[in-house]
Amino acid sequence: xxxxxxxxxxxxxxxxxxxxxxxxxxxxxxxxxxxxxxxxxxxxxxxxxxxxxxxxxxxxxxxxxxxxxxxxxxxxxxx
Length: 79
Fold this sequence. Notes:
Layout: H1 3-16, H2 20-42, H3 46-60, H4 67-77
Protein name: Addiction module component
């Protein structure tokens, strides 16, 4: 799913929520996660930041191994 599609669906979900407390909880969780993400990446040394950027690019290119597949591979290695 493209980022624009995710955003649109997310907006639709939020627009249907009438409970102000629930909206505030969601907002706070997202704001906290965004802040934490910024704090964590600020702590990285250049080599770690470069590796993280490379990993993000690999995900965008689909160069990933699904968790289930990795579990199977590890299970075979341990036999």
